[in-house]
Amino acid sequence: TQLLEQSPQFLSIQEGENLTVYCNSSSVFSSLQWYRQEPGEGPVLLVTVVTGGEVKKLKRLTFQFGDARKDSSLHITAAQPGDTGLYLCARPSGSARQLTFGSGTQLTVLP
Amino acid sequence: NAGVTQTPKFRVLKTGQSMTLLCAQDMNHEYMYWYRQDPGMGLRLIHYSVGEGTTAKGEVPDGYNVSRLKKQNFLLGLESAAPSQTSVYFCASSKPRGIEYNEQFFGPGTRLTVL
């Protein structure tokens, strides 16, 4: 199993602060996905990154895929309480693009 | 469209009891998946299916069986529940698309406690 390590595991910040969470592996990936999960719900896809060095932006969220395609980061600018949730990175692979997930970063944004 | 629905939402079992979790999707997706989520461990794949009548094992298949008799339904069975199967179970579905456009749609989950 090719593991995905996420850090930090927990993050609690004040509204308006910036933050970065990381997803790392020793293996090269063809693509990487980021999901967000809110309490009592299933994960929802935020973005897929495919190309080494790729940067994608989704409003205040910036996603980057490492040049060597072994790591990825998620940066949130001016965090808001609505950003609170569990952020999961995942690697699609196999015949059904089944996902291998990282352990997640639990983000709490305090008003 | 309801998307992906799961039944039941909550269940408490005693050790040794059996049960079936039902997943239904109305998006005409070919691929369906069952994951379990435990604290601090993200989601792990139990079984998956690439189409009606086909199933395959994932990362943690022991103690579970699945069936996909209809395209829209994917059933997860526990024949003899154990406390180690206490978890939140998520079903997901997707269409076969290029890797850049692949997206799995998840249900709301079933919280199972085995005493």
Explain the overall architecture.
The complex is a heterodimer of chains A (111) and B (115). Chain A is mainly beta. Chain A is 0% helix and 54% strand. Chain A is globular, with a radius of gyration of 13 Å. Chain B has 115 residues and is an all-beta fold. Chain B has strands spanning 4-7, 10-13, 19-25, 31-37, 43-51, 54-57, 65-67, 73-78, 87-94, 105-106, 110-114. In chain B, strands 2, 4, 5, 6, 9, 10 and 11 form a seven-stranded mixed beta sheet that branches. In chain B, strands 1-3-8-7 form a four-stranded antiparallel beta sheet, with no helix packed on it. Classes of the chains: A mainly beta (111), B mainly beta (115). At the A-B interface, strand 5, strand 9 and strand 10 of A face strand 4, strand 5 and strand 9 of B.
In summary, what is this structure?
The complex is a heterodimer of chains A (111) and B (115). By secondary structure, chain A is mostly beta strands.
Could you give a short account of the major beta sheet of chain B?
A: 7 strands, mixed
- Residue-averaged pLDDT of chain A, rounded? 94
Distance, first to last CA of chain A: 39 Å
Radius of gyration of chain A: 13 Å
Counting DSSP E segments of at least 2 residues, the number of strands of chain B comes to 11
Q: What is the averaged pLDDT score of chain B?
A: 94
Biggest sheet of chain A, in brief?
A: 6 strands, mixed
Distance between the termini of chain B: 36 Å
Task: Tell me the helix content of chain B.
Answer: under 10%
Strand content of chain B: over 45%
Q: Would you list the SSEs of chain B in sequence order as H and E?
A: EEEEEEEEEEE
Number of helix segments of chain B? 0
